[in-house]
Amino acid sequence: LSVKQPEASDDQLAYEGPDFGDLDENLQKAFHKYLEIRGIKASTTNFLQEYMINKDSKEYLGWLKNLKKFIEK
Hints:
Distance between the termini: 36 Å
Structural class: mainly alpha
Region (Disordered): 1-20
Low-confidence stretches: none
GO cellular component, one term: mitochondrial matrix
Number of strands: 0
Number of helices: 2
């Protein structure tokens, strides 16, 4: 999740907030409890984290391949 002001230019990056691991430990625990109460298990969040890491890596590799093709032209 990221937040970008509507009046911001297209070249400005959206604010993505702090890394979860940098948050206060009590806040992290409360968030995990919030998810647990709503039926979202740790196994689900772990899967999603791994999935997004892999997706990001694949997209980055695709971008690098496209950049290489562009430079070779």
